[in-house]
Design a protein that fits this description.
single chain, 554 residues, alpha+beta, Phosphorylase Kinase, domain 1, Transferase(Phosphotransferase), domain 1, 8-stranded antiparallel beta sheet, 6-stranded antiparallel beta sheet, 21 strands
Amino acid sequence: MIAEELLGQRIGPYIIEAILGSGGMAVVYRARHSQGEAVALKVLFPPPGAGKEMQARFEREARTAMRLRHPAIVHVLEAGHDGGRTFMAMALIEGESLADRLARAGSLDEATATDIAWQMADALDYAHRQGVVHRDIKPSNILLAADGRALLTDFGVALALDDLALTRTGHTVGTPAYMAPEQANGQAVDGRADLYSLGVVLYQMVTGRTPFRGNTPQVLHAHVYDLPPAPSTMVRVSPGLEAIILRALAKDPAQRFLSGAAMAQALTRLSDQTTPMPASSKTKQSRLRWLWPALIVLVLVLLGVFISLSFTSVTLTNSGTPRATSTPWATPLPTFTATVPPTASPTLTLSPTAPPTATATPTLSPSSTPVPATATPTDVPVANPPTDTPPPATSPPPTATPCPVPITTTLTIALDNSGSAALGCPRTEAIIVAAAQQPFENGLMLWREDVNVIYGLRPDQTWFFTGDTWREGVDPSEDPALAPPAGLYQPVRGFGKVWRERPGLRETLGWATAEEQGFTAVIQEFAGGTVWQESEGEGGVILLNNGYYQVSEF
């Protein structure tokens, strides 16, 4: 049967509407559930004479993907058999693949490439912690949604670390142009092989080509033995991004990033080292001319804070239920509450409280010495030791270990267990940053002056960032053809450029509900994300490294 013959036919509860794409063993259709939901339906088309291994691989892909719940991984809804056909229903992503984007554009600007790589690194970190190695990271397996999200798909050759049948050596799996050296040699692989492949993808996004070219044997040999040409020899690239790329492409896995989280953090820090597309002085001055009074007020506020030792509490709450599916041969596994945000919108509240003293969360004191979370334990009576036995050199350790970097006074965090696991300890001291924000019908945009980066907060509780590339006198401030309804606003300048150039994002966020406003932010980076707080303590947002955010009203 050819792929077109299934158009208009029913498979399981789905009516097939159109062909979205095809590969060596499957066709992906746009289909619609009997209840009206549009999905991407992947149907297996094994070639004549194919054995059971192909079917087993397809079913393994479904089982693997169904237990992964992450905002940057395409969610598999259900899988099953119908009339001799094996199918898998996935969330439908409106957009294109990264391969299609690169074929059209050649290469991407540094801010966009960094954003995509960050999302993929975070998704891989999550998958690896669930015991799954993808083994086929490449542009065609990265989907770019119209609203700016990047999503990883196709776990068809994924390796489950607890599946002994798949960990044998001497078996090469993957796409040669993106293979890690150990993968090309048929050796055992772990998550660092995926990070090497992501390094190749990042290299290609920046330079427009993969590091090694030639026929398959030549490319595999080069991955094992040859050094890749430095990206800076071909294109203009910041030293920080080039260092990340070359580290990801290290031949020795021990010299690469040891986890997706480490690579994601390096990409996050990159914006603090270099600004991909710096704005003109006029652009910054136009925003800053009304921010200086706020900075003066902030200094006075902080002095008052240190005198009064007032604190702010941030509380994270989680709730949500998994999506119900029909009865398939593979069903979703429970989600992991410590790493997967809920489907319902979480809430965040900011309210003045006294610092906690009886929990494992460290509190702050004016001095640099952390305050123990509990009182020093008293001695427990024991039998008298011999007279020549020296007393213990140290007292018993406290029940809580303070963070090495103190939580700044105005950002004292009192989190529940899942929130603490998500944020962790601070990585840096808090800084004072000139910022701007603009609310939308379905979200929010933020801007940081120090790194000239725009952040977008979507209604599904996910966020993205991109460089502010708007130029005063060069780029239009707004589009006269776009007329907002009464009482709403068209965003202008940097916010407006991002909003106008991403139609999917424009549809997602809607119109602005107020004009852009400047404010002074106190920002502190944690191991698991970044906390923003208004200097007056009236609002704030937590941008978690897993791609989700929690916010109180600004």
